[in-house]
Specification:
The structure holds two protein chains of two kinds. Chain A is mainly alpha-helical. Helix content of chain A is about 75%, strand content about 0%. Chain B contains five helices and twelve strands. Chain B has a six-stranded antiparallel barrel. In chain B, strands 6-7-8-11-10-9 form a six-stranded antiparallel β-barrel. Classes of the chains: A mainly alpha, B alpha+beta.
Chain lengths: ~170, ~325
């Protein structure tokens, strides 16, 4: 039971990490990089609920912070992903979920996370935040997330329902 | 809202995150250095694998992104390629012309002919059953009727009509042509006539008992004042001897040295040599030169220093007596 869940989460993380860093990041799209890992956190929170989503978000955030090609403060992404998972897991009653709603929720959450990351980094005194670009980053990130949402949320939900139906929301 | 256990776990995770952030911010990279390097190594491997997997897909993206550029580039390169190919073709053509001229000069130098080089500008229609070409020099270049025309390989024909800037040359393969020829290295003479076949001439020997070997070369016998034929010009080699020795007429088939179908640079012999070069104009055949002869080239009385080696391929002892007609 536990093992199967952990396995599913590890696979989800590896696929999204791989795709984001090796593919999406190198596409050179304008604005922000499509944040597939965050979308996967949202998908997990929707599928397993807030608590599991927050645990997954913590792990994914710590790994992202520690992984090569990220130079942020360790723990910031973990906190942000946990917050996103908490919010997403409680925002919608599972019975009200429709694909457009999920898309809107995902892209709104991603935009909010980008903004929050900017705020936290500024508060922590990181010099890398350029507020002039923030609007563009949030907008592009939200648009990319809207595209990624149906591609990630729906399959993750399906996999979770299929293999671990007893813990699925 | 959460189960008790979940609440504890989440609270711990939040505390851990904050602790990490604070520790990291204090500049104390110490506790995270090994952690970072371990995770970095593991996830770096994953990233590398991902790069391998996604590189072809990204290459497609690059292809789309630069499609327009590449089309321009292809056009540019094609144009460049075209220009370069033209250049190469032209240079090959130029080289061939230069080689032809070189050969012509070699022949002229070996035989002491004074020649005027010319280019073939037209070839007469074959359905007229005459083999004639037009060259781009005429009376204003000092060309006269009945001058010999040669190229680097040998005799081509003779000038049959001269205009101001062009001349008509009848080729030796024309059936109406006949040339006085001599077998290289011997005194056997005969009449060479065209057959209309560009690879075969007919050589009628005056001496029916003469011994002719296949592969022996023929040179022109020479005419009075070198017209229509200057002496000593290579014509061709014997490919076949018909009729047995002693018959009334003996005929040999001769393959001309000059390729009649591929004439481009020719030379008109405007002044024949004072003395008959005999066989000295024939191309050297090193594999048949005996080492002793090759080692000690003796200037012959024909006045050509290379005559001893050049003429020795069919007859090792060039005859010193000039036989100009």
């Amino acid at each position: 039971m536990w093992l199967r869940q952990v396995f599913i989460l590890v696979v989800i993380f590896l696929i999204s990490f791989l795709t984001q860093n090796s593919f999406l990041g190198r596409l050179g799209l304008p604005g922000s990089t499509p944040d597939l890992i965050l979308v996967s956190v949202i998908a997990v929170a929707l599928a397993y609920g807030s608590a599991m989503g927050m645990i997954y978000g913590f792990a994914a955030g710590i790994l992202v912070d520690l992984a090569p090609s990220t130079e942020g403060v360790i723990g910031v992404n973990a906190l942000l992903f946990m917050a996103a998972a908490f919010f997403v897991g409680r925002a919608l009653d599972p019975r009200d979920r429709t694909v457009p709603l999920l898309i809107g929720l995902t892209s709104g959450t991603v935009g909010a996370v980008i903004l929050a990351r900017g705020v936290i980094d500024s508060v922590l005194g990181q010099p890398t935040v350029v507020w002039a670009n923030m609007a563009g980053l949030i907008l592009s990130g939200a648009i990319y997330a809207a595209f990624l949402a149906p591609l990630v949320v729906v399959p993750v939900g399906w996999v979770v329902q299929k293999f671990t139906p007893e813990v699925a929301v | 809202m959460f189960q008790r256990r979940a609440r504890v776990v989440i609270a711990v995770l939040i505390v851990v995150s904050l602790t990490f952030a604070i520790l990291d911010l204090r500049g104390g990279k110490g506790p995270f250095a090994t952690f970072r390097s371990v995770v970095g190594t593991a996830l770096g491997g994953v990233e590398r694998a991902g790069a391998t997997i996604f590189s072809p897909i990204l290459a497609i993206g690059d292809w789309w992104g630069t499609w327009g550029d590449q089309r321009d580039q292809i056009n540019t390169l094609q144009a460049e390629n075209q220009a370069l190919s033209d250049l190469v073709r032209r240079s090959a053509q130029d080289r061939a012309r230069a080689d032809a001229l070189d050969g012509l000069l070699r022949v002229a130098g070996a035989g002491r002919y004074r020649i005027t080089p010319a280019e073939v500008i037209a070839v007469g229609p074959e359905q007229e059953f005459s083999w004639a070409i037009t060259i781009d020099i005429g009376t204003q270049d000092g060309i006269e009727r009945d001058m010999s025309v040669i190229n680097a390989d040998g005799l081509v024909g003779r000038v049959s009509a001269v205009h101001r800037t062009t001349s008509t040359v009848v080729l030796i393969v024309d059936p109406a042509m006949s040339v006085g020829a001599r077998i290289a290295g011997s005194d056997e003479v005969g009449i060479l006539s065209g057959t209309g076949d560009q690879n075969s001439l007919e050589f009628q020997m005056l001496n029916p008992l003469a011994n002719v070997d296949i592969g022996t070369a023929l040179v022109t016998f020479g005419s009075k004042n070198g017209k229509p034929y200057a002496p000593g010009i290579p014509i061709g080699e014997v490919t076949e001897v018909r009729g047995t020795a002693g018959q009334l007429t003996r005929v040999a088939a001769i393959k001309p040295f000059a390729r009649m179908s591929a004439l481009s640079i020719v030379g008109v012999v405007v002044r024949p040599p004072r003395t008959d070069p005999r066989d000295s104009v024939l191309p050297a055949r090193p594999q048949e030169v005996t080492p002793s002869l090759g080692a000690t080239p003796v200037p012959s009385t024909t006045g050509n220093p290379s005559a001893a080696t050049r003429g020795s391929w069919s007859d090792p002892s060039p005859q010193p007596s000039p036989k100009a007609s």
